[in-house]
Amino acid sequence: MGAVADAIEAKLNAAFSPTRLVLVDDSDRHNGHAGHRVGGESHFNLTIEAQAFAGKPRVARQRLIFQALREEMAGPVHALSIVALAPGES
Fold first, then answer.
1. What's the number of domains the chain is made of?
2. pTM (2 d.p.)
3. In this predicted model, what pLDDT tens digit does every residue of 45-57 receive, in sequence order?
4. Does residue 13 belong to any structural domain of this protein?
5. How many C-beta neighbours within 10 Å does residue 4 have?
6. How far apart are CA 10 and CA 83, in angstroms?
C-alpha cells in the first residue's frame, strides 16, 4: 500500500498494539464519489483487534481510533469503515 496506509498502520500499532490489524484500501469502489482521489488512499476498511477495546462499547472504540488517526481523517482519508474487536470477539 501507500504512504497513507503505512501511516495509519503505524499509528494504530503504536496506539493499540493490536493482535490483528487488517487495512484494505477500498478507494477504487468509490470512483466518482465524494472524497475519491486518483491514486486511492481515500477510503479504507479497517478490522482491528486489541485488548484496549475490551469492555468498551462500539462508539467508544471508534472514537479511540479516530483520535489516533485525527491527522489522516482531517486530510487524506475521506472514509474509514471500522470493525474494532477485543480479543475473543468475532
1. 1
2. 0.88
3. 999 999 999 999 9
4. yes
5. 21
6. 18
Rounded CA-CA distance 75/70 in Å is 9
Evaluate whether residue 56 is within a structural domain.
yes
Residue 81 inside a domain? The answer is yes
Report pLDDT digits (tens) over 24-81: 998 876 566 665 556 668 889 999 999 999 999 999 999 999 999 999 999 899 999 9
- Nine-digit cell at 67? 483520535
Residue 13: which residues within 8 A CB-CB, separation 6 or more? 21
Q: Helix, strand, coil % (nearest 5) of the chain? A: 40, 20, 35
Residue with cell 490489524: 21
Give the DSSP H/E element, type plus range, for residue 84.
strand 79-85
- Residue 38 within any structural domain of the chain: no
DSSP assignment letter at 56: -
Percentage of the chain lying above the pLDDT 70 cut: 87
